[in-house]
């Protein structure tokens, strides 16, 4: 860690005051930025706690006069997303059903691919890796229509497995990149030792690499989970009634064009939709940084 | 009996680069072969070829009489110990040792009994439940040995197993490995670039440079009769003094003239070696330049030399002078009164000197 | 057993209630309704989903579609024919001719109309007008005079949200007023180049420039309902918006004629925005049965009444009794009848009734660009012609 | 046979992913290229008509605006995110007691989608509702912050929100980089009498070049894909002042039924991606061969 | 003259853990002080305290007669060389060396001339344009030295500067540092855990353990008269043999009895040391157990010992036996004919033995 604050200097008094002033300045700057980052969340939370009446008449960014949780209740189980007025609850579970397997599968495949690219290189492995990486950069709008066609041909159009499939495909580039960058830091000697011990390709992966991968699994899972959970474009294009993820429901609540807008419900729904990803960041954020240090940063 | 390991005309390329060139080595059951050489000379590559971890590009490789050229590592009946130990970081010590057996489907009872034996042998019984991360360097080293020992293989391969340990531990572990070798009578191939390790452990040493074998021999052959300047310089610490000198051979022997900085050249007479060319490089080990009378040397000749640096090293004191335009080190007693800037009388033991051709670097005597 | 999966973008509270009426009727007739709502961007997101569904061979049974888009989809060969229902129910007799025309593809019926939104409404805060001694304007000159007066009094004359479709809504209202019904039809239905580049079109843009001066500086990006709220709470006097704005007033407990006033924008004519459902080609008898049942119910009098009471619009069929409707709706229905007879019942270009998407989009691009910059009216007219040409 | 499987297992494992990428990325790119040469409208058609869609594209003023916006937005977004991320990382690296909490606050926007936060941002930036109104209500009557409604400035609000969303992640990358700098180097610099700011500017920051590269790539790809952000915040407005290629493409494909046009704009976008990513990939792979 | 470095009662805590306890050391101008001790004993911490990189918790610290306790590193007039070299990775060699001067505003001409001098001194002229990444370990080491030398400071601090080099290079660089020290007459503090380095370089050695100084002295004091068992064991390679023995002192001297494995104890007579307690630990260096007559030792006494292991190390051969229940190492000539399993006659040089109390570990003689 880079710590300069401990350096003693000529006059103890002078430096002490200088140091304290500097520290205050430091915290002040950090605080200002914290406000910048928190502002939208603040607006969302306060709005969700206001009544519609108050929103219509008052200042949108002011603190609520009367705190009410009605909007939250409505958003969770009462808001209309079409003719059903069950709130976002059913869609929440759709999202879980999509995100959990998609994250798991793309992470596992990414791990396997990264393992091959980093430790079982063969001719052309680099080119394959490069091609996969390039896939990370394709704008998703481009693939919507041909993908729809193929999903139809595969018979999984509009189904949850179809959505899982799409997310896995377009997550592969990043997960492979993460794992590959992490695995290149694991010494080749480990693989060699295991080979001499008689272990094969899968055995080495399963018994040796996978247990070592926790930090990078955390990074990948966080990344993939936020991507998939927050995805709207695929969700809206490749779902049908009954398989729509929460972002679509949220969009239905928030973005109706010609109806009456209930901003408090919108915001409450938005926060509910964001809770899982927020939770993931708050709980695992520290492993996220650690995982980045461990692998993907190495350039 | 067939040699336990027999390498014939082995070559190894990475792409178009030839890393190993026409390697021929054979060792017998119970031999302790040490591969030494500077970093990057291909020692690890050769060891990996023996283990089957790298395919070879040419030549053949037999282990225990069987052609193993294309056999996969796990079927070669070898065990290997790595420089970084390569312990499986997420497994306990016990699991590290038994992993290979588990993979091979050895039953649990056998696993346990073999584990117990090996753990006892290496005195790591108390560590069996720990993770590698919780072990000191020496302990890790022992576990890595345990993982190899438990296999009871035809051939042990070691890739610089001690180089990550500190000096003290290195000496201890060295002794342990030597003891182990004597007790098991196993065949071992051992890579190091520490030549003391090579000397103390080996029954046979291979010195390599740039993928080419420079010399194969017993430790004393290598130490006392290095085949060329490279081997002479590489083996021994402090290194052999390699002094440019003029030789004048006649029937009685050879007069060797060595330039001195501030005075007339030293002239030594070698009665054993004749027929040397005029320009030679004289190779003398530091311990063969000593106080007069320190050792009963058959062929000792004395001269005064101006001392530049005195390095007391506890057991001995090294003094450095300049002869023939080079730093020359002599090993004196710890109690010597040599002082920098003063002349010191030294005896050169010509019984054990080497001569090399300055151009080719090949040994002349 | 009839089955239908219905893709629509009626997701807000009032709209959802309206659709629920249909769903209930459908269920009462033994059908199974699967709801597939996709809101956002005036149906953009729904259209994204629709395209993906169609391409994957998994089209929904019924889709909220309107205007020439119906014919466009028909041309792609993915729509079903519901002529049998239409003929059995006598749709031709109860629907105004121009609206019926939208529901037909090459002579056969392919869609069922739900309602008629009038787009060329001007809404006003009654108290504000009264306090400033202003009547509902009947010409654009009146409007400008009233606006100037209000502006002087520190009231925002026109509440507006700066989104492309809102700009276009105001634009077509102005255009209808200035070009007249025939000019409007030539310009925005026939894309007649002479009309598009005529001096009258320049005058339309001049009036738009004036309108720009009547909105507050913070209008860009504002949702239409926030603009409505400005009228409601007296911050602004007028808003030009379709009759869905009425829902906002009513939801806030305001009464038509007392708290707020509704009138058609200055000028002759009626711009309609008809919501309709198109039936897609699907497999399975149950789905086909669902389509027929759905089509029948949609155009049926009871649904047309209940739905439009909720939605704020008026029934598409002309034979529904209007006693329960409010005064604005009654006015709308009367005007529709009158304009239908007078040939001035016109499709709204801003709401995708008049043109294909690429064409109306090209026009809107110019309109919104003009409104949000200091482009001259002549330049705007030039660009309008170029954009229309480039979109064909 | 089993030896064959053993030897080729790595390839077998990689194969499904590889095939998937070939089909679902490269196959689709080729498909798009094809469609961009047709007159496809509502649905794709496959009769090649030549480069007419590209001609239309370059004739559209809106596309010009979108491309200009992409470069302006991209440059600002990438540069400011990096500078801010680096600054915050350096500040956070000074033994801050509440580091964990602050880090989470800076990082959380990454977890939210713009569908969610767009409305909040819209209010905050709206002069009549948000910051401007708030500051004015404190008595600063002349305070102006009306970027959102100013066609010339609106693109900067997109930059602002985009930075809000991504700079925390960049900060995390840089923080990780700072933590991996050898402490002995910093100590050496201290003994050498080098002031703190020079230690950062001359020694630490230059040594983090690979991280700058990673950050650049991540940010560039976000910039090119930026879509939700614009839709949620400005919807491309005022006018189409904040259109980006991604929103242009979406509008053409899905609200205007002009798929051929959308495909041609997508191809141009891919060209931009290509010129940025290929040099990066090249350097990635070369470094690996060392 | 005041000592160049004077540390009085220095203590250092991290939180509640006391890392350094009451350290007192002083060195004079031109001294070469080496801090040795096992890993984690606080050597680096002490060096960092001297450099001002860590604040001290108690005591005082004077450099060149001035109180530097609270002075920042850059004002202490010191230079420091680190284990990892700590070169600025993105700057060329020349910039690495001159960067400190540049920051201090030294003019370009002076910078250039100083750079030239130092580069010549260290023979790195040809490397000046390279990046650290393009240098070998030894070259990096030289550049790091250059960065220190160019400062021309009152005091040089080295933290294990050679430990990342391989054995051969380590010996060479060691000699260079020694030469540099002699030439500059500079004052140096040097941390290592390699005791050969400590012995050869130091004019004064501090042996530390667990944050406490065990002994301060010249290399020969430390080597020949270790203050306690820890120092005895730590310094010297192979380590000093520490053999439990029974002592029986009388007026003539002391009879020392050492147990042997298979035969009667060895009995040696020490005529110099008297008044020893009955239980002692006898400390004998390997080189003080040698072939009879190998060295003219004043006090040599002979005995037969059963040899367990023979380790030829080139210059010498080590044999390991078991005495007093411990492995005991003797250093014999390279040409010895000692064989494992056979008895070997050895001479014990009692003139240089140490005695320690088994309980306290303190030196007795
Ligand atoms: N996978 C590879 N591709 C290309 N060249 C390689 C590869 N592995 C090793 N080499 C090269 O082969 C040569 C020999 O390497 P090797 O690891 O065998 O050396 P070594 O003698 O073990 O060195 P050290 O003592 O440093 O371990 C080196 O020059 C190295 O650069
Ligand atoms: N920042 C710190 N906070 C707490 N404890 C520390 C810190 N730095 C060092 N220590 C502890 O202080 C003790 C001395 O560390 P130091 O680095 O001085 O040892 P050393 O003698 O240099 O060891 P080595 O030979 O391994 O370099 C160690 O036990 C270490 O764990
Ligand atoms: Mg090697
Ligand atoms: Mg240290």
Automatic annotation (TrEMBL), chain A:
Main location: membrane
Keywords from the UniProt entry: Membrane, Transmembrane, Transmembrane helix, Transport
Keyword Transmembrane listed: yes
InterPro entries named in the record: MetI-like, MetI-like_sf
Gene Ontology cellular-component annotations: plasma membrane
Location of the protein in the cell: Cell membrane
Chain ranges of the ABC transmembrane type-1 domain: 92-284
Membrane topology of the entry: Multi-pass membrane protein
PANTHER family reported in the protein's UniProt record: ABC TRANSPORTER PERMEASE PROTEIN (PTHR43879), GLUCOSE IMPORT SYSTEM PERMEASE PROTEIN GLCU (PTHR43879:SF1)
Protein's name according to its UniProt entry: Carbohydrate ABC transporter membrane protein 2, CUT1 family
Species in which this protein is naturally found: Pseudooceanicola nitratireducens
From TrEMBL, chains B, E:
Signal sequence annotation: none
Single Gene Ontology MF annotation: ABC-type transporter activity
Keywords: ATP-binding, Nucleotide-binding, Transport
Any one Gene Ontology cellular component term annotated for this protein: ATP-binding cassette (ABC) transporter complex, substrate-binding subunit-containing
Pfam families: ABC_tran, OB_MalK
Highest rank taxon of the organism: Bacteria
Keyword ATP-binding: yes
UniProt record, GO biological process: carbohydrate transport
InterPro entries: AAA+_ATPase, ABC_transporter-like_ATP-bd, ABC_transporter-like_CS, ABC_transpr_MalK-like, ABC_transpr_MalK/UgpC-like, Mo/tungstate-bd_C_term_dom, NA-bd_OB-fold, OB_MalK-like
Gene3D superfamilies in the record: 2.40.50.100, Nucleic acid-binding proteins, P-loop containing nucleotide triphosphate hydrolases
Domain spans labelled ABC transporter: 5-235
Family indicated by similarity: Belongs to the ABC transporter superfamily.
Xref: NCBIfam families: PRK11650.1
Name of protein: Carbohydrate ABC transporter ATP-binding protein, CUT1 family
Species annotation: Pseudooceanicola nitratireducens
Taxonomic lineage: Bacteria, Pseudomonadati, Pseudomonadota, Alphaproteobacteria, Rhodobacterales
Automatic annotation (TrEMBL), chain D:
Pfam families linked to this entry: BPD_transp_1
Transmembrane recorded as keyword: yes
Family per similarity comment: Belongs to the binding-protein-dependent transport system permease family.
Presence of the UniProt keyword Oxidoreductase in the record: no
Membrane topology: Multi-pass membrane protein
Start and end residues of each ABC transmembrane type-1 domain: 67-282
Transmembrane regions listed in the UniProt entry: 12-34, 70-92, 104-124, 153-178, 199-224, 263-282
Gene Ontology terms: cellular component: plasma membrane
UniProt GO BP: transmembrane transport
Annotated protein name in UniProt: Carbohydrate ABC transporter membrane protein 1, CUT1 family
InterPro entries cross-referenced by the UniProt entry: ABC_transporter_permease (IPR051393), MetI-like (IPR000515), MetI-like_sf (IPR035906)
Keywords recorded for this protein, A-Z: Cell membrane, Membrane, Transmembrane, Transmembrane helix, Transport
Primary site of residence: membrane
Subcellular location: Cell membrane
